[in-house]
Design brief:
Elements: H1 5-16, H2 27-38, H3 43-53, H4 57-66, E1 78-83, H5 86-90, H6 93-104, E2 110-111, E3 117-122, E4 134-136, E5 139-141, H7 146-158
Parallel strand pairs: 1-3
Antiparallel strand pairs: 1-4, 2-3, 4-5
Helix pairs in contact: 1-2, 2-3, 3-4
The structure holds FE2/S2 (inorganic) cluster (FES).
FE2/S2 (inorganic) cluster is lined by residues 83, 85-88, 124-128, 131, 133.
Length: 160
């Protein structure tokens, strides 16, 4: 399996940040970076990462299937993760999630027909003080009301 030169450079920098012999500790970020390019965790990707880290594919598969942010199915171009854990729930996160599903016409872990948006109900994003919080790819948005969500969606649509 071949990766883009950009991803190869990113992986090389990542691996160089670990002490010699400890490269396997880079497994999760390596899978995340590769997922950004490939779109999802495929069997080929598991095998490639295993080869590079001198692990068995089953060891990589175990980790890949444990973390919810590592996806077996491709997400939309804009992957919207809405927290409905306790702080966000108390501040309207549940209603925000339902509003977002209605706006996009999809349910949890589904992708719009054009592939541009996907939505996922998630546990704590670590932004409890600014609840309700959501994340679009790697960008955080805090204190999101349904009205602010509509504005965000418009910005994302116009950026296409
Ligand atoms: S509970 Fe939502 S970010 Fe922590």
């Amino acid at each position: 399996m071949t990766f883009s030169p950009e991803l190869e450079a990113r992986l090389a920098k990542l691996l160089a940040s670990y002490p010699a012999g400890q490269e396997r500790s880079a497994l999760v970020p390596m899978l995340l970076y590769a997922q950004d390019e490939v779109g999802r965790i495929t069997p080929e990707l598991v095998a490639e990462v295993a080869r590079r880290l001198r692990l068995q594919p089953a060891q990589v598969e175990e980790v890949a299937s444990y973390y919810s942010m590592l996806r077996q199915r491709a997400a939309g171009k804009h992957h919207i993760q809405i927290c409905t854990n306790i702080s966000c729930l108390l501040m309207g996160g549940g209603e925000l999630f339902e509003h977002a599903c209605r706006c996009l016409g999809i349910g949890n872990k589904e992708v719009t027909a054009d592939g541009k948006f996907s939505i996922e109900e998630v546990e704590c994003l670590g932004a409890c003080s600014w609840a309700p919080a959501l994340q679009v790819n790697y960008d955080y948005h805090h204190g999101v009301t349904p009205e602010k969500f509509d504005q965000l969606l418009e910005v994302l649509r116009q950026a296409e």
